[in-house]
Design brief:
Strand content: 5-15%
Distance between the termini: 113 Å
Radius of gyration: 30 Å
Structural class: alpha/beta
Shape: globular
Helix content: 25-40%
Length: 338
């Protein structure tokens, strides 16, 4: 026999249950979506501090200095700012009975003739005698000089001081020196390539168009390797003065002594974000001793000294370099550019 139709109350209850079920499913779907979005957002935020700063700024929180207004300190990585440098034996004592570094007090095993260099002792970590000679030669202050194992050490150190891996970028102007890209790859930093024009000059408009807010370092090679083309100081100053870029400008002068364009060292006092790289491997003919330098304002060089290995420049290298600078006259006054 036919079953009786459901009562109104039963139908209402069934409808209510269906509505409740749909509402629960909708709520669950929304919750799942929110969790998924939150997870992705959390992942992005966790990996992107710039995004954190942007969102924080939108909601009234503190944020990093906006692009276009960053100081040198703003550009330095947070972990480097708070780094306590290694304090080595020669920071405190260089004379007397030195027992603080577990050195071999009997002497070096290679001393024939007798070792007059005290190779059994660690070198001065800051090489002040050598820096004083370089400062006189380049007309800068010795406190503005960092010495390293070739200029390659300074290039790598800049990546570690300024660039957060997988977040910040550098810009280069190919064709140019290959170690910029190698050091960036080692430090997991993306390289932006802004090619030179057909005459191997820097195309400023193209260069600025290629920059990103994440760009911390700009490498300009002058004279260029392999182009041999020098960059006028007016161009360097144009980059440093342009509000479209507020990162560090690195002028690599490995071949500067072969150029009629003066060294950018003369601009260091004027521009806090300028770093000049030089080496003894080319004009000085001392590629075998592996000595390079970064030249910048003292506060920037202090970051290099904080990060560097304690005794990266050894006594034999320093001795050869001191001898070289004692055998060259002071750098002649540059002729005015045409």
């Amino acid at each position: 026999s036919a079953s009786a139709p459901p009562s109104r109350g039963a139908a209402d209850a069934k409808g209510h249950m269906a509505s409740t079920s749909k509402s629960q499913m909708s709520t669950q779907t929304m919750l799942a979506g929110a969790v998924a979005v939150g997870a992705v957002g959390g992942l992005l935020l966790g990996r992107n501090k710039r995004l954190q700063g942007t969102i924080s700024g939108l909601f009234g929180g503190s944020s990093a200095a906006p692009a276009g207004n960053r100081s040198v300190e703003d550009l330095v990585r947070e972990n480097i700012k708070t780094l306590t440098p290694y304090r080595c034996a020669r920071d405190d004592y260089e004379e007397g009975v030195l027992l603080d570094a577990n050195e071999n007090s009997i002497g070096a095993t290679v001393a024939k003739p007798p070792d007059t260099r005290e190779l059994n002792r660690y070198p001065c970590p800051y090489q002040w005698e050598l820096k004083a000679l370089i400062a006189k030669h380049r007309k800068i202050a010795k406190e503005q000089i960092f010495l390293g194992v070739g200029s390659d050490e300074a290039i790598d150190m800049m990546m570690r001081i300024f660039c957060v891996p997988r977040e910040d970028t550098i810009v280069i102007t190919p064709p140019t020196y290959g170690m910029y890209g190698v050091c960036a790859k080692v430090n997991d930093v993306e390289v932006i390539k802004s090619p030179l024009d057909p005459l191997f000059d820097v195309n400023l408009e193209s260069l600025f168009a290629d920059l990103r807010p994440s760009t911390k370092l700009m490498f300009l090679c002058s004279p260029g390797n392999p182009t041999a083309k020098s960059i006028p100081l007016a161009t360097v100053e144009a980059v440093l003065n342009d509000p479209r870029y507020d990162g560090m400008v690195v002028v690599d002068e490995a071949y500067v002594d072969f150029s009629t364009v003066p060294s950018a060292c003369c601009l260091v006092d004027k521009y806090p974000k300028l770093i000049v790289l030089q080496t003894l491997s080319k004009a000085f003919g001392l590629a075998g001793i592996r000595l390079g330098m970064a030249i910048s304002q003292e506060s920037t060089i202090q970051y290099f000294n904080n990060v560097k290995a304690p005794y990266s420049v050894n006594k034999l290298t320093a001795e050869m370099a001191v001898d070289a600078f004692n055998n060259v006259s002071a750098e002649p006054e540059p002729e005015p550019e045409p």
